[in-house]
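[Solved] Which block belongs to which protein?

Original post:
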Amino acid sequence: MPSPSPPQFESSLARLCRARDLIRDCFTEPVTLGDCAAEARFSPWHLLRAFRATFGETPKEFLTRLRLERARHLLTVTDRPVTEVCFDVGFSSLGTFSTLFKQAVGCPPTEYRRRVRPWVTAPGFRPWASIPSCFARRFGGW
């Protein structure tokens, strides 16, 4: 029976997954490329290249996507102000948040909330979840 590999021989994939898990677990806090590289025991630039090659996006893109997904959820099911949602999901600038949100979703956060609210009948219920976003944007007026 083979013995477990010592930590220094941990696979690159496992190390990349540790960096990804750090981002996923701490996405509402400031997370830097250096933090992720230290977690994976890679240089920052090697982590950047390997992360993109493995997961199809950079650590920053992954972090931004997680934050925006959480913001969409909060805007849908809560009445919290957009500014509060922005800071709660980890953005430090409302302008940056609004710009990235509009690029990703197709409309500003306040308009998104106005559009999705008629669909919300219970907390956490999202009847459009099974509709691909590209279809919703094309045929839903987004």
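(Second protein starts here: sequence line, then its structure tokens.)
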Amino acid sequence: MIDFSIRNPLLVNLMLIIIVLAGVISWYAMPQEMFPVVEQDKVRITTIFEGASPEEMERQVTLPIEQELDGLADIDVVSSTSSEGSSSILIELKSGSDVDNFMRKVRTALDQVDDLPEEAEEPELVRLETRFPVISVSLFGSISRGELYAIAETIKDELIQLPGVASVGTAGDREWEVWVVVDPQVMAALGVSLNQVAHALRNNLRDLPGGTLKSTAGDIRLRGMGVPPDPDRMAAIVLRRDERGGQLRLGDLAQVQLRLEEAQTLGRFNGKPSVNLTINKTGQASTIQVAQLVSEFVEEQSRSLPAGVSLGLFNDLSVYVKTRLETVKSSGIVGLALVLLSLYLMLNFRVAFITALGIPVSFLVAVIALYMLDYSINMVSLFAFLIALGLIVDDAIIVNENIYRHLEMGQTPAKAAALGTKEVYWPVVASTTTTIAAFMPMFAIGGTMGAFIAVIPVVVSASLAGSLFEAFGVLPSHAKEILRMAKKRKRGRIDWSVLNRRYTRLLRKCLDYRYPVAMFSIGVLAITIAFAQTRIPFFLFHHV
């Protein structure tokens, strides 16, 4: 690879251009978000049975499903909640379990539950994900709650049509309910009990299965459609018929009204009643782009709202993503400047330039790797780039310094590039490989935390691999061309001869007394480890 690089500078530069273009395209193609979407080792089974009480849900739905799941392996904790018309079973798996295989077993187990009520819907099985909302929109104003909710529903329907928006959650709103207000005296006079009214409502409002009709075209499933929850239609429900054909309807003894449900949460924004909409993006969408689209939508919609009603934005996570992107950008610029300055002082500007070139090349290789492995640009991956920033220039510095040493010894630029690079090939490869190996155990961390930080070793390893490629595949070619023009230049702006002589004397003494020096180093390491284990507290996340 070294000889190929020196003999074919045009091909090397072409490869470099391809890497740069692929890296830039990959960067803009990847989704940008606050944190990575992590699939948890948890699954949830949800079953809907309209009209059933919590006790009925537990007895007829939750317990039969739990009994069928009892024999499955990999289950750590099972918790369930039975509420009116709904059953939710949360299953937490043991660390390291194969969730996909477990879900297949759960689906098989659910198919074997044969005593669920016919009126109940099919159980829904989903794997939980850690997903953070992108931005929140608040609709607020000094109007009635009912009008506010109606406008919020319209805005919600339009928001979900925006590109990249997966769902829109609502907080502070209330659903419409149908109230049946009965008069006890009228009921007593007509001889109707409250149980009769409840029984008539239950039978008329729900859909009932009607079995299967066999035909030459195939099986036809029959289902009786109930009365829709409309006040006028419900008031016409027949409670009783007499011998002469007369009918007693619900509206004869009760008022059927449409009301807003009792408020569970009340939203306020800038001191006014509000309905808050939380926007979640799709997996491949960018947080910054989705937030920008929502901001433009809010600005446009604000012009057409009724008087006294406004839209506001809050919890905009794109601000944090932009801040971290700027942090990485500024850190990269500072790192590049420091490398250029230090090498300029010790060697010269041309050497500093071809050495610093390794930073963007290494980062772009890591970006390409992230794109190919379906990762995203997020807070964790950006943190990994900051870690890699201090590691990726070592290879190029070592190679460049050795090439320059051969150049000072009188070698031609081509020969200096070849000899200087080959001499340090295996030490540099070994050094980089051990650094990569130090991050490999992070892949072995299981569970949600392991999936959350898995991008760190990917970024660091890919960056170091890119640094290695640049040091041995690109740098020799550039060194041959650029250092040819710098051959007669002064080594650097500072005379390091005094420091070199003192360092040489110290190094010789350390080699003469190598065993005491080695024992001293091991002793310092042991004391440091003991101090860290006994005196420094450990927290996964520091208290802020």
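Accepted answer:
You had them paired correctly. Confirming on the second one: The mean pLDDT is 84.
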